[in-house]
Amino acid sequence: MATVKAFPALRFTEKAGDISKCVCPPYDIISPEQREKYISESENNIIRLELPTGENAYENAGRSYRQMREDGILDTDSVPGLYVYEEEFSVYGNTKKIKGIFARVKLCEFSENIILPHEETLSKAKTDRFNLMCATYCNFSPIYSMYSDAERTISGKIDSLTNRSADIEFTGDDGITQRLWKIEKSADTDFIEKAFSDKQLFIADGHHRYETALNFRKKLIEDGIVTSDEHPANYVMMMLIDMENEGLVVFPTHRMIKDLKGFDADEAVKKISQFFNVSEISRSEIEASLSENISKKAFVFCVRPEKYYLLTMKENECTKELLSSLNPGKSDAYKGLDVTVLHSLILEKLFGIDKENMANQINLKYTRDIDEACDCLKNDEFNCSFILNATKVSEIKNVALAGEKMPQKSTYFYPKLITGLVMNEIIPPEKF
After folding, report:
1. Who contacts 64 (Cβ-Cβ below 8 Å, separation ≥6)?
2. Distance CA 133, CA 29 (A)
3. Is 102 helix (H, G, I), strand (E, B) or coil?
């Protein structure tokens, strides 16, 4: 099963300055304006490497990376270790904590059933990450993965090893507190490595980066650079979190529909009522209505002029048979997903938006903000929107175990992992 190893992380040194000004959120949620803000606060911010810009963006990243290594701004730890990471944050009025470990994990093809994906990927993002790896030979961002540890063998050990002040601790502008402890290579890290030997890993976030790591390893094998199983390119950096962790939070991603020709709200409601019970609600009732129907396949349908309808799927044989016919060969776990029901019965069957259209976002746009999903209808570009409940962690696991992938934007794990606290150097700059 999974092979997990301690490693000598690449990290910012004291020469870099305040570590809180050197890190940033994942590159794919950062706007150009936010990128400039991070750089204005510190010329050493990791965003320079993780999200390079310009005509020769990747070459610029490689050049900057080599310079930062040469200047001692970045350096690898002299002793390998596992790095325990904790985020403390507020959500829905409650304070939560989530804790896991940064480690190197041996790459496995998905067909080996050891590391399992749950979501489809886009080629453009994989090409971007591949080009960056070719220029830097480094993982700057971790892949977020989960494992099952009902007896808390691993998480209990991690807690016992971090019963002290963190080596690094700060609270960012977003109010999230970041903590890091290093556990140097020892009997304790050996214990944790061994405990993963019977585990499967479920990718929560970072599917593009994982598939890129597989492609990058293949390239290095073809180039004759990787000649043994122990070469660092056979591994990728992951953040490993117990899926029973009470701090796990998954946000829903809502769907906004645009540019549909001849769209008529009343006609749409009539068509939808074939498969769903429909009741009009107020905007202030949206969240409570969805929460009350969390065990059902339920959505809120938003149309002009500020009308909101709670939709709950009719649990009859006709609807179930149609759902199956629209998803041939798919498991019950996949067919039971809220996003599958919405995409199949409404977007595809009733609105004529096929999977390719969705993948290319021709008539579909995503948001995590309920207000944006409602207010988008003030713009004539948008026809309607659908507000969803969040996908459950158990559903993610079951779909992955069935060997299937959810539609894109089915999950949004919160909070995102910070980039720049711990990095994974595959080949040192002087060797490439």
Report:
1. 48, 49, 52
2. 19
3. strand
- Rounded CA-CA distance 22/16 in Å is 7
Residues in the chain: 432
**Within 10 A of 143 (CB to CB), how many other CB atoms are there?**
24
Nearest 5°: CA angle at 220, between 193 and 23? 60
pLDDT per position as a tens digit, 390-424: 999 999 999 999 999 988 888 999 999 999 999 99
Structural domains of the chain sorted by starting position, each given as residue range(s) with its CATH number in brackets = 4-249+414-431 (no CATH), 253-389 (3.30.1760)
Q: Which of 25, 71, 70 is nearest to 45 (CA)?
A: 25
The C-alpha atoms of residue 416 and residue 428 are separated, in whole angstroms, by 28
| Backbone angle region of 362, left / alpha / beta, with phi > 0 → left and psi within -120 to 50 → alpha | alpha
3-state secondary structure of 222: helix
Concatenating the DSSP letter of every residue in 226-243 gives --STTSGGGEEEEEEEET
- What pLDDT, in 10s, does the model give residues 124-137? 888 999 999 999 99
Backbone angles phi, psi at 223, to 5 degrees: -80, -5
Helix H or strand E encompassing 85: strand 81-91
